[in-house]
Amino acid sequence: MLTHINISNFAIVEQLDLDIPNKLTVITGETGAGKSIMIDALGLALGDRADSGSVRHGADKAEILASFDISNIPEAQHWLQQRDLEAEHECILRRVVSGDGRSRAYINGTPSPIQALKQLGEILVSIHGQHEHQALLKKETHRQLLDAFSGLAGQADIVAERYQHWQDQLKAFQHFRDHAKEMQDRVDLLRFQINELQELKPEDGELAQLEVEHKRMSNVDSLLGRGQQVVSGLTEGEPALTDQVQSINHILDDMVGDDESLREIHDMLDSARIQMEEASSSLQHYLGRLEIDPQRYQMLDSRISGYFHLGRKHRIAPHQLAHLWQTLEEELNAIDGGEEKLQKLEQAAESAKDSYLDAAKTLSKGRNKHANKLDKMITEKIQPLGMPGAEFKVQLQTNPANQYSIHGLEQVEFVVSTNPGQPIKALNKVASGGELSRISLAIQVACAATTNVSTLVFDEVDVGIGGAVAQIVGKLLQELGTNNQVLCVTHLPQVAAQGHTHLHVNKQTSKKQTHTDIAKLSQDEKVAEIARMLGGLKITNQTLAHARELIEDSQG
To answer: Looking at residue 87, what is its pLDDT?
Structure first.
């Protein structure tokens, strides 16, 4: 639940620091005082869209910090743990909005995207606004509310996932079926191309080796002649280079006897002679292996030509043929199979459809089971709200045969009869805005009572009602606050009297600056505030007595 909120330079609030208690907290104030400012600030901390108008005039930035106790909200704990944001049993959301409208969000001190704030916010708080009934005119909202009330939101997600999987499998089957001729033509071409490549059997790096060997065999005569010249010059000529070096070294031997510092030069020349002899021996060995093999040469020439021929044919570099061969075989394996492949795809699509239908039927069974419960609960709640003969129903209309939906096998629609004897009508056909507002409130209270969200916010949802109906609305909210934390912005004294805690919003103007403060009222201050709401600016003993009576009645 929400335990604390701190607001700085937001709208007309300069600074606000409030501890938020459990149960039902009502927020009141004079018209124009900014009763919804705290709710708007909380919405910003929960990921609502920010703009430059959020920043108080003259300030650089607005900042909202909301603290939550999540010890009894395992879903929130799991969400934080998955993202390495856990902080034992406390969660702190912070939003900073700059003067140009840009904003930053933090979860437990870690910078986070706004979308993450929204996701976590939906787990922590449910905000119901005075225009909520507009969303209730949409069938999509009806379906979502029924699934949430029935605890079927998870099953609805499974249905949606399986529907999407079925559609993907069906598209794969239909694509293969509709393009069978083109695919067979492609298979035939691939087989022809692969057969050509199989004859060549190209290998990575082979072409470079073939070209080296081919070049050597093309120049055998030249290599033999020049190689023999080198050998002769090194060790076999008259005089041989090695013999000349050895004669020179003999002279150095005598010189070393007179000057030992010449030893290094002597050794260098001796080493050079030895390396010349080894080079000559290696070269003779190389020349001994050189030979002209016409068949080998022809094979090399033919294979290199094959590489270049197929390279030109496929418009790639010859050395890329091995990779092309592998790629073509992978493509053939993927699309080959003809009727067998088509049959497997069809079976996969049918299996995915059966899986979807199993999940959808389970969802339908749950919806039908809980629809009657929701009918009864909302009917019981709207009848005391000035509509004694009203009847609420959840209509489940099965989709036409073979017309399946990502949302299941039926359409969900809320319908109502506001007076005895009148036909059931869709909510968007209800003539009275006041009736629609009351029906909306009853639906919100009924569905909120089953939500896993521990903090519920009602922002002036009691617009358009009064008198005894207002008192009943207050009792509904108080009842809801028994097991939930409920914040309610209201202008009705009958609702305000039901609050376990009363916050008062006060707007003050000084030195051409406007400030809004929110303060927790004592019992006497609560009596005075409800008396003001009952009787306007002039508070009499009669209105004070009436205020006490409302408060006492709320405690009965």
So the answer is: 67
